Fold:
Amino acid sequence: MSILVTGGAGYIGSHMVLSLLEHDHDVVVLDSLVNSSLEALRRVESITGKSLRFIEGDIRDRELLDRLFAEHNISDVLHFAGLKAVGKSVEQPLHYFDNNVSGTLALCQAMEAAGVRRLVFSSSATVYGEVGTMPIHEGLPTGTPTNPYGRSKLMVEEVLKDLVKSDSRWSIALLRYFNPVGAHESGLIGEDPNDIPNNLVPFISQVAIGRREVLSVYGNDYPTPDGTGVRDYIHVSDLVDGHLCAMQAIARQPGIGIWNLGTGQGYSVLNMIQAFEEASGRDVPYNIALRRDGDIPECWADPSKAERELGWKAKRNLDAMMHDTWRWQVNNPEGYRS
Ligand code: NAD
Ligand code: WQD
Structure:
């Protein structure tokens, strides 16, 4: 049996594929390469010494999906494919809903037709919206995401919940990621934003290497210890381990499982700058800018449900996240184009 990884050439997906190969799974990757490079998968094969099957295509292409399920004996689907740029989702809502929501519908329809009913979905802490008290646990109701990207994740969660209600043979994990950062310890694969990075850690890293001059800190007047935004940053390799545990859990028990994947520890923007400077030995010049639209003051997980039910806990600390990011950045100053 094989595992289908949609979006497997992307940042998180490529780390997932690497881990699956290391655990002796057969892997089929479906990716349109709209936000990734095949070079990531070449490197995954070279790190593991194992090969995978790659299909270039779109999850919205139902005929392609039907062919894929007919040709490969798929047991589980890990569904990472999606667009994730918050700002672009505001400019192009139709494109985002089509890709993220319609794409997932097409995937589930093809899975249903093929009798494959185990799915792990990449959701996001953004589905909680703005929460009054920290940490955030899964028992809280979902809130109002502040942008179409976030709403696309919430819509997919609702669709998948209804699907499980309609047919108890489905087994679905909704994994709500907090802020994935870091890179594989080899320094050979990592996050490679196409454009100017939207997220904090890739931006800091590009400032440290000299690709960008200065970091804008979006607001220092939040009600947080140092006034800057606080988030729960989680090492991508820990995140991937969480998927392996979730896959095992949904194989044991059908239904829907919702788990936060975070560390339970919040760090401010200034904490992150300092930690990166220590790990890299470089200065990260910054200035204080206005708050960014749609940002919330703080967000960190209560990860205890995942520990209790999946036997999973994040192991890597902030220092490891920063060292691994820096190793990837230094080895690949221009990302996969280096
Ligand atoms: P990424 O952009 O690096 O990876 C997504 C991959 O999906 C890319 O390789 C892209 O080419 C592919 N893709 C996009 N649309 C596709 C389509 N229609 N058909 C086939 N392939 C398609 O992003 P990532 O950071 O690895 O995120 C993976 C998933 O996790 C996404 O669904 C994202 O929304 C979710 N997520 C990410 C974060 C984060 O901060 N990185 C946080 C929470 C949730
Ligand atoms: C972290 C902190 C910023 C950049 C976003 C999405 C979310 C999720 C992950 C997928 C905040 C501050 C950032 C910069 C800064 N993705 N910052 N200067 O906003 O928590 O979440 O990515 O689901 O949906 O909204 O992550 O890394 O963008 O920001 O000061 O140049 O860093 O204000 O406090 P965020 P982030």
Notes: The mean pLDDT is 97. The two ends are 36 Å apart (CA to CA). The CA atoms of residues 16 and 240 lie 5 Å apart. The longest helix spans residues 93-114.
